[in-house]
Each structure stands twice: as structure tokens, then as C-alpha cells.
């Protein structure tokens, strides 16, 4: 795959040529490959997941610290290993989803014995802890706020009368119901500590530097009513390579600082301009931030040679970091495209299954049509046969009835004889009557 080749090339460049390049600490990271557990288990390697009263759900691509329901839930995630480096970058991607006026908070910890001293507590219920806490919530009725808290192990936050006043830095950010993960980066450099949200500066300070030896943890807590669901997609911790600063005061480090003092003074204006930036350098700007080629004869002293080498190494580091960010963006986009393709294939398969059922239904309708046609033909033939039989029977009956009537009727001769005989009898009777009348004696009055 092309991205894998770019990733391999970038790693090779990082190892071969970058003195201050960032290196992934795998035992403190998860989710950077798109899966919580590369082996497919229901746990996160090198981390302990716990919660109360319900356990958080470890899915294939995210960790659900608190569900959308029921409320009054607590979830925590703590690393088994400590962060032994002093210069590092922690990248966390999370998502908060809930009702319109939901509540709850997400806490990102860097604390000694954090799994024991903090556990699944939030910043308001944590007791004495030694380290840093970054809190994401809707403090003060705002749409969202990110605040930083420090403790040296002497302050009991659970008993403090006003925890909110202990924040050393904050920024407003609406993180709820965005429909996408929110990215938070914490950077510990030699100059300062800074927090970025979605590649924009949230706050920074140079008043402290976290020492090595802290455990990394993420906790979430929700109220009883209108709880939020907090999901964690990724936690990656990067440290500087061969040039990592360990926080010690060795003579070698002191000599290097004194030797390079002039070089830093000569570039103080560039560093000042870089420090005044409120947002990180864009990837395209990082690729364009190249140093023009110079003739080798102009480097007459070791200082100028070191200055040129230092500038070129910094430019290389910036370009490699930009390349890593570009690869990460491509991998994220590729993962989203892959997920969309899988969903499309599943939808297509479901529709094809429906088409298969439609074909079976069409076949059944065709068979039913054939059966109906056959039944119609049989019924027509039977009706025609019955009609012929009925006509035959009716014709035979009419013929028999006519013949019977003909046979039962008297002949014409007999009828004529009867008529003539009747007329003769009537005529004879009349004649006899007339004769008798004429011969009878007349009566006179």
C-alpha cells in the first residue's frame, strides 16, 4: 500500500537523519493503527480499564468510558508503564455525545501512582495526587471548556472549597455533539508546556516542566440526569529520539549548552517569532520551510557549520513531523473511506438479498399464472362438454315430448266424424221439435 511505503520511508528518515525526531512509545499508545487491540481482543494492551458501576466497553475502534444511559457512571483507563521521557507529545482523540443540556467531564492525567491515587475519580473527587490533570467539561454553563490543573501531592482536591480557582490555564471549546472526534495535544518542550485543540493553541505556559515518571490516564464521570457518553479513539505518546532531554544536570549537557550559546543568541529573533505563534505550523507551510543551498566555502568556522547543520536538522524535523501528520490524515481518511465502503457493500448485499427474494417471488407468480391458465383451460373444456351434453339431453327430451303429444292426440277423421255427427244430431232434433210443435193442438183464449 502506498501509505505504508510512505510511513516506512518516514520512519527510516526519522531514524537515520533526525536527531530530535519524535518516536512513538508503543507501550503508552493505542488506537494509532485504527484498532484498540491489534489482536482483536476485548482489552487494550499495556492499559488497565475499569469503571463503576459498569465496566467501560472496549470496541474494535474506540473505548466507551461512559454510556449514554444510565447516568452516574465512572470509567477509567491507566497505563501500566510510566512516561520516562521529559520531552514528549501526547495526542488524544475523543468524542462526547449526549442530550442538548448533557453533563459530565473527561479528565486526562499525568500523575505519579495515578492508578492508585486517582483511580476513576474526576478533578472534583480526586484526593492528593502528584502531577497534572487536563479537564474537559461545560464549566460555568459554557458550551465547553478545557482547563489545566497541577498538584504536588499536598492539596486534597476533594476537600477544597473552590477547585475551579486552581486552574492554571484554560480555553473555550465546544466539544459536544460534533459528530467527529476532537483532538487534544499536550506538548512538553524545553521551552514550555502547551495544549492544542484540533491543531489550534488552547494555552501554554513556561512556569513549570513535568518530571519523568508519571503514568498516563483518562477518566470520565457523568451525573445522574442527562449524562454524556465519552468515547476515546486514540492515545499516542511521542518522545524525542537521540536528542531527548532527560532533565539531568550532567556536565556534558552543560558544556553543550555553553558551546551553543552564541548560536542561540544569533537566532533569538527567529525563536521569538516562532514562540509568538498562537497556532501550530500548517503541514504545507512546514514542507515549504526549507533552507536554500549555500556554498561550502562560506562556512569558515565551526560555529557557522554547526549553525547551518542545526538549522537544516530543524527544518528536516519539521518536514518529517509534517509528513507524519499528513500520513496520519491520509490514514484517517483511508479508514473512513474503508468504513464507508464496507457500509456500502453491506447495504448492497442487503439489497441484493432483497432482489433474490424478488426473483423467487416472480418465479412463484409465474408458476401461479401457469396453474391459473391450466385451470382456466380445463374449466372451459368442462363447461363446453357440459353444454354439449345439456343440449343433447334437451333435444332428446323435446323430441320425446313432441312424439308423445302427437301420439296422444286423436286423428282428423274421428274429429270430423264427431263434428258431423253432432251437427246431424242437432239438425234432427230441431226437425223433430218443429214437427211436434206444428202437430200440437192450438189453444185459444
TrEMBL record:
<keyword id="KW-0812">Transmembrane</keyword>
<dbReference type="Pfam" id="PF03388">
    <property type="entry name" value="Lectin_leg-like"/>
</dbReference>
<feature type="compositionally biased region" description="Acidic residues">
    <location>
        <begin position="281"/>
        <end position="297"/>
    </location>
</feature>
<dbReference type="GO" id="GO:0030134">
    <property type="term" value="C:COPII-coated ER to Golgi transport vesicle"/>
</dbReference>
<keyword id="KW-0472">Membrane</keyword>
<dbReference type="InterPro" id="IPR013320">
    <property type="entry name" value="ConA-like_dom_sf"/>
</dbReference>
<dbReference type="InterPro" id="IPR051136">
    <property type="entry name" value="Intracellular_Lectin-GPT"/>
</dbReference>
<dbReference type="GO" id="GO:0006888">
    <property type="term" value="P:endoplasmic reticulum to Golgi vesicle-mediated transport"/>
</dbReference>
<dbReference type="InterPro" id="IPR005052">
    <property type="entry name" value="Lectin_leg"/>
</dbReference>
<keyword id="KW-0732">Signal</keyword>
<keyword id="KW-0175">Coiled coil</keyword>
<feature type="compositionally biased region" description="Low complexity">
    <location>
        <begin position="249"/>
        <end position="260"/>
    </location>
</feature>
<dbReference type="GO" id="GO:0005789">
    <property type="term" value="C:endoplasmic reticulum membrane"/>
</dbReference>
<feature type="domain" description="L-type lectin-like">
    <location>
        <begin position="27"/>
        <end position="240"/>
    </location>
</feature>
<keyword id="KW-1133">Transmembrane helix</keyword>
<dbReference type="GO" id="GO:0000139">
    <property type="term" value="C:Golgi membrane"/>
</dbReference>
<feature type="signal peptide">
    <location>
        <begin position="1"/>
        <end position="21"/>
    </location>
</feature>
<dbReference type="InterPro" id="IPR035661">
    <property type="entry name" value="EMP46/EMP47_N"/>
</dbReference>
<protein>
    <recommendedName>
        <fullName>L-type lectin-like domain-containing protein</fullName>
    </recommendedName>
</protein>
<feature type="coiled-coil region">
    <location>
        <begin position="358"/>
        <end position="385"/>
    </location>
</feature>
<feature type="transmembrane region" description="Helical">
    <location>
        <begin position="415"/>
        <end position="433"/>
    </location>
</feature>
<feature type="region of interest" description="Disordered">
    <location>
        <begin position="244"/>
        <end position="297"/>
    </location>
</feature>
<dbReference type="GO" id="GO:0005793">
    <property type="term" value="C:endoplasmic reticulum-Golgi intermediate compartment"/>
</dbReference>
<dbReference type="GO" id="GO:0005537">
    <property type="term" value="F:D-mannose binding"/>
</dbReference>
<feature type="compositionally biased region" description="Basic and acidic residues">
    <location>
        <begin position="261"/>
        <end position="280"/>
    </location>
</feature>
